[in-house]
Amino acid sequence: MKVGVLKETTPGERRVALVPEMAGKLRAAGLDVLVQSGAGEGAWFADSAYAEAGASIVSAEELLADADVVVAISRPADRVTGALRPGQALLAMLNPLVDPAFAASLAARGVTAISLDGLPRTLPRAQGMDALTSQANVAGYKAALVGAAAFGRFFPLLITAAGTARPAKVLVLGTGVAGLQAIGTAKRLGAVVSAYDVRPQTRTEVESLGATFIELTSVGPAAGEGGYARALTEDERQAQQAELAGHIARHDVVITTAQVPGRRPPLLVTGEAIKAMAAGSVIVDMGAGPLGGNVSGSVPDAETVTENGVTLIGAGNLAATVPAAASAAFARNVSSLLLHMVADGRLAIDLSDEIQAGVVITHDGAVVQAATAALLAEDPTGGTAP
Ligand code: NAD
User: Fold this and answer.
1) Where would I find the beta strands (DSSP E) of 235-380?
2) pLDDT tens-digit profile of 147-192?
3) How far apart are the CA of 198 and the centre of ligand 1, in A?
């Protein structure tokens, strides 16, 4: 079986789906590895390092012609996916719940789509394959650094001959994997950290990191399925935004990480809340992307300053800005999943396996993953996320 590693083409994407060390691991397991020339460049993995690990360096055309499984970080460009042939597999973060129509188009062409974001998150044997977790960890770490870098004061309490600086007050909204890593990093930088999530069970994790958990009186617990949050009702959403605004105004740096699977990120910080913040405050919106964000007015991949002097940073893809660490972790996830799915030197699709039932989105001409199939049954055109 030949595994082909694509060079990413999304602007700003510096990660690579497989690093030389993991290419060597797949080779040792009897798989051939083809790497598109320059695929690892953005993360400082040279073609020569892949070649030393036993991979063949090829052009994009050769890769698409020869690979049995094409691996990438996220959905490749249309000209690449359009060149995939029946029986070939594509493994990446494909977000089928956000764009089910794309999954349907791959199914129609007989391509097997394997999406890392479909992995069951709470299954212990799947932890080593969990790319959402590995990338959220990297991104949460970087979010605290980005917030600190844009803030015009210190994060720690500093007592010097020239005076005393009070520590920065940091608020983290959403305390899943990324939020907890942001809390830990901001604490290590010396900030005083508070945090909030609609899943009250995260309180103990927040407190164990030395941060204060904020409880809202107007919104009850909103845990959904699989350890995720559920979407709030319109009334809950408004109550949450209004109550959060008071907390937001009392903080110097706000980092937002809230997500609900397959939906637009919830808006947590309104324009009114931003207006009540002091000049010099910073908001890092990790939800910022094509579907919107957690913060009113934040622009994906851009830094803007509001009229009242609040810096808004749209930072939806921070993992790509720590490319070597993020790629190394992603590559471990990819190789664990691939080795789990390979038998006798080929992909052995088995939808009775809980892991495969989550990640295999299309196979043998059909959309086979339950959640994606359900969305398409509701809306065969596969309209965008609610
Ligand atoms: P996520 O990226 O889907 O969301 C980030 C956070 O935003 C979540 O904590 C969520 O509760 C919160 N959120 C959503 N809507 C909100 C709102 N309106 N207001 C405030 N907060 C809101 O989450 P994630 O980091 O991917 O984690 C999802 C779950 O998976 C968690 O329960 C995590 O513990 C679990 N998980 C388990 C394992 C494991 O058991 N091995 C591994 C990874 C993740």
Assistant:
1) 253-256, 282-285, 303-305, 311-314, 342-343, 346-347, 360-363, 366-367
2) 999 999 999 999 999 999 999 999 999 999 999 999 999 999 999 9
3) 9
